[in-house]
Amino acid sequence: xxxxxxxxxxxxxxxxxxxxERNGWADYQCICCMKLMKxxxxxxxxxxxxxxxxxxxxxxxxxxxxxxxxxxxxSWLIGKSCAKKMKGFTYTIKNK
Length: 96
Description:
Layout: E1 7-9, H1 16-23, E2 44-49, E3 53-55, H2 64-68, E4 72-77, H3 80-85, E5 90-92
Antiparallel strand pairs: 1-3, 2-3, 2-4, 2-5
């Protein structure tokens, strides 16, 4: 990988805690604002490491810990408006 930024602090909305208290944890929910999402909106993700920072989607699993300093925490759903604040650190999987 070239000199791209490899990690970025996760954007957390000011309404995140309020939404978490209101909705609890749910299957279809934006990790940044905890807003509930419809299943058909769930196609954009952010990959996090165990230090809870977002990882550039070009990083391969085999190089993950070496390049980011932590293990993978997996991918988390992110809503469209929050994804704009994480530009370059999200990826989309088109639903079938």
